[in-house]
Fold:
Amino acid sequence: MSPRSARANEAMREQSMERILAAALEVFSEKGYHNATISDITSRAGVSRGLITYYFPGKQNLVDKLLDRYISSVTSILDVTGTPDERLAAAIDGVLHTVAQSLPVQQMTLSLVINPSTHGLFAEAEARQEAGVRRLEDGLRELFAARGAADPALEEVMLRSVMEGVIFKAAVYRDQYPLERVRRRLYEMYELPAPKTALIQDDPPPVGRMRAARPDE
Structure:
């Protein structure tokens, strides 16, 4: 049997790392950073402890990789072309699509941000992604300036605050949160043309009250 090629070895390495990261994300979102253990992640990934520590020496290395990916995906939402309105709509849709498709990431990030003992991990990740964060901030300010806003910097802060609130609510209320209707309301707020198609399927029907999901749900 001939030895595997360098390309095959690299593909296997990437598959192993992705399997470990997916398992780590699930465990962190369910248990939180401090309660999660490498043994938990080993069991969830179905790999040996040695393989995990070979790629990621400790829990912080896993969190760092997951946070870097998340922040990078958020800061790239303006990497689209079109009119200012089209770019703003794409930015809103980009955030909401990320929320809908990767809720465990939001849950993990939220737990890190609000816990004083782990907030520094998120702050460090933002610092590592400083160039992308600045590009996002500047891009949003330029976009709002092009739309004729009197204070583009304030509009940038307001949009990010609203979107972060949406992320928080979606992480807490999960399937109860009406992302598609929120999306359409955001379009109305910014006087954007109504979307022609739904971005998020199976939006829950209107409810009087939402209830936070229990950890075992």
Summary: The first helix runs from residue 6 to 31. The chain has a mean pLDDT of 87. The chain is about 70% helix and 0% strand.
